[in-house]
Write a structure and sequence with these properties.
heterodimer; A: alpha+beta; D-Maltodextrin-Binding Protein, domain 2; 2 domains; eight-stranded mixed beta sheet; 13 helices; B: 537 residues; mainly alpha; MetI-like fold; 0% strand
Chain lengths: 334, 537
Amino acid sequence: MTPLFSLLAGALALSACGGVSGTTITLYNGQHVETTDALVAAFEKSHPGIHVLVRSDSENTLDAQIVEEGPRSPADVFFAENSPALEYLQDRGLLAPLPRDVLAATPSRFNSPTGRWVGVTARVSVMVYDPATIPRTKLPTSILALAESRYRGLLGLAPSETDFQPIVTAVVRAVGRARALAWLEGLKRNAAGHLYASNEALTLAVNRGAVGLAVIDQYYWYRLRATLGTGAMHSALAPFAPRDPGYVVDVSGAGVLASSHHRSAAGALVRFLVSRAGQEIIARSDSFEYPIASGVVTAQPETPFAALQPNPITIAQLGTGSTAVALLREAQLL
Amino acid sequence: MSVGAPPQPVGVVRPARVGRPTRRPVTLLVTSALVVLALAGPLAFLVVQASDAGWGPIARLLFRSLTASLLWNTVRLSVVVTALCAVLGTLCAYLVERTDLPGRRLWGALLVVPFAIPDFVVGFGWTSIAPGVAGYWGAVLVMTLAVYPLVYLPVAAALRGADPALEEVARSLGLGRLARFWRVTVGQARRAILGGCLLVTLVILAEYGAFEILGYQTFTTEIFSEYSVGFDLAAASALSLVLVGLSLVALVVQNLVRERHGARVARGAARHHAPQRLGRATAPALVGVVTLVVAALGVPVGATLYWMTDGAPSALTGDSLVGAGLTTAAYAAAAGLLATLMALPIALLVVRHPSRLRSALSQSTLLILAVPGVVVALALSSFTEQHLGGLGYQSAALLVLAYALMFFPLALVGVRASVAQAPRALEEVAGSLGLSRARVFARVTLPLVAPGLAAAFCLVFLSVVTELTATLILIPTGAQTLATQFWAYQQNLAYGQAAPFALAMMAVAAVPAYLLGRFFDRLPTQRASALDPRVLP
């Protein structure tokens, strides 16, 4: 029994402190785990006095945890996958204002309108399709057409993914709530039997031909290609028409918690994420997201960020995603 | 009692009292009450959360067509997988224990090992090599392969311990092989089969990881979405209560079936069985068993090895692999210990001092098996946040407690089987020789039930190694287990990096799985089907 407990105590000690004198901060990470780990490692190297503990989970779970923890939250920094998760905390007064120089690293349209979180990467929604099931010429140019009956049995959907909510919000803004609901109901009919819990599983399903087409953020496809190799990619990407509500750029960002006792160290970590060094790590990583700060551009063979022609929806209009969630519930996709 | 009650006849002895100790087992009662209280905590949390939201929103959430389709998905999966597991588990146990199947000892060992493979690794293995495995039939396939050992293990033990005389008599009376299998073998193993089936049903109700990979929606996956998308604890709690209701139904059905076929087969003498000759059935039987071993064991292990060698070149994960392995083992060992300690008083109470109420209480502890891990985790973390000022929040201790609560029923299965076997007379002799209660317990009872304690420890250890959803919520920041690391990589489609963690999980779990197989092997009576709460002394 004794060695057992000492082992446990060891594991505890290992997890409780990093053994570095100085400041230890906690990062709640909803982003790509490996890229975040690489960013944290580089940050710790350039800031020897600061040690970062990382807690990775889905952004919404972390969001809910931060709200539940309230003023006692152990988190100092939150790195979210999508802007609504940050706006949600900001609305509840849980984020601290960021220093001006941190915000200045990223174009202001990708930051919090009130300056409490900064945009770190961007992602864009596209169609992924299986050319053996549906030829490119049969693909729609607008996401609204995906609700038409000709796509019945061909469509796949991951309605509980947080990445899907910005698209729903963009559709609501484009056609109004009532038509957006009818559109979601159409999607549900067309995707019957092909509802997935994650975009990863959805992308995989398209690639193996179980689903004809789906809407995802572009990087899932590139990540899958990095794992499987080009030879095993039986699917392809196609964009919607310029400015279509299905063509949405959404931003992943980071903020410092108002409850943090280590605001300067936490601020340093956020500053690093949008610095040239941090952005270059993102540009070279396997996350395949677009760096958007400090003038760094992606090294990956994707459509260059500057060449994208997305829907003009703003961060403020994307909001917390509550309208999208309510609508998804009403359509019984949630 | 009403006023006009007729006077009781004098001199009637209530037979149930015969042989009962006169002193009430106070220590046992108190400790058992504490354990039951701890187990009831998460269930109480569900009720409080759901009622906080008020009936209106809950009704809107529950009474809509999505609920109906989730209910249909959950029920048809549970029923079909349970039936398949019953058939596969019983047939395999029969072939290994009762026939001259070539290599049956080897097959016996290999058939147990899939118990050590996490369900989501089985799902991962199949979907990564056979893209067509998805949806309902994919879920049926994967879950059957992942959980049939829950039937196989107790049935094999029951068959081994059963009296062969019945079989011999049946043969001498001219019953054919099929009739003998159905009327004798299945009859003798009925309780073990039913007990195993109940476990299978409860496990399926709470499963998450495999279904996420397969794209199959059940109540548990929906509970996850409700919590993670809508941050809606009340909705998740209401859905969980439906799940608890379903598991209650399973519990009642199991009891009804058992009562209907009530008569308990006399144990008789457990002596060696002369194996039945399979004759012309040998080849198909062998093909069947080999197919099952390949599907349940070969595919997940093979897929894992394939991704390790053939997946994308990945950074060496050696460091985090060892760290996560040690953390996992430490958590699993601590939880195994705690759950076993919790199970001991309940098992002693129910077996040594049986009453209807105590049996019902002990059986109701099974319900927690069907509560999704995420819900247990939320209950505990919310309790520490709201009532303990954050004390213990995201600590290893709280995580270990969560594991112990979640897998308590498995510990109880192991402990009770042993307690039921330990001869009461030895304790009485020790007592009559002047040993105090405490010393009788330490010097007689404990050594007698030690194998069961070890089995309970192993069962919980195994389950903790593969636990994912509660771990994600409760784990101390910065710590990783093999399951969370596997999940993180698998989620990012980084199969090459995920594979070593899956392999490590199987390696860590293989030892207790093997020991467990040995325990059930040695258990010489039908009491291996110890889910039966009324194991008579």
